[in-house]
Amino acid sequence: MKYPTGVKKNHQKEVYHGNRGMALEDDINTTNEYYLQNNIAVIHKKPTPITIKKVDYPSRLEAVIREAYFKIPSTTDYNGIYKGKYIDFEAKETRHSYFPLANIHKHQIEHLKKIIKHGGIGFIIVRFSALSETYYLGANELFTFLENSTRKSIPKEYFSEYGHLLKEKYSPRLDYLAIIDKIYFEGE
């Protein structure tokens, strides 16, 4: 295309990866707020532990962190309590029809193993954004896949077969506690 000034403009979009998973995180945070407001459960996003090295203080209200690093590898994204049981889980989003195992770290797997060993409820929530599907996969089903497969990703079909589809609703947005009720509390 010829522009009046003769300059051809490049309209290529820059790709930012920093906010991947934010839609899922927003849905989970909204769900957790619903649980808290309705006295159903207390589940919060865990802050990532960082050490701040350099801060600019133009004023107290306008402090800007210029340099920071992670203190230790973070465990999982969320934890809390529901019906007397400790809950701990990781939330991930992928644009593929599979979940790359590179998206979950070894220390997070080890953390989930400890949660299960001590009687807690551990799981992952994975959103396949291109398919508009979100799944709950219990930690034991995750461990089974890791122990029995050499693949570098978990196909969406594994989530369909061994996980639970979380249907999006108005309120709560992603009712993952309904799945926990079926697995852990049905028949009580």
Number of domains: 1
Radius of gyration: 20 Å
What share of residues are in beta strands?
Answer: 25-35%
* Oligomeric grouping of the chains: single chain
Strand tally: 10
Cα end-to-end separation: 69 Å
* Helicity, as a percent range: 25-40%
Form type: globular
Tally the helices.
Answer: 5
CATH topology: Trna Endonuclease, Chain: A, domain 1
For the sheet with most strands, the description reads: 6 strands, mixed
CATH C-level: Alpha Beta
How would you write the strand order of the largest sheet? Answer: 1-4-5-7-8-10
Q: In CATH terms, what is the architecture?
A: 3-Layer(aba) Sandwich
SSE ordering: HEEEEEEHEEHEHEH
Unreliable stretches (pLDDT < 50, length at least 5) are 7-21
- Please tell me the overall pLDDT: 85
Structural class: alpha+beta
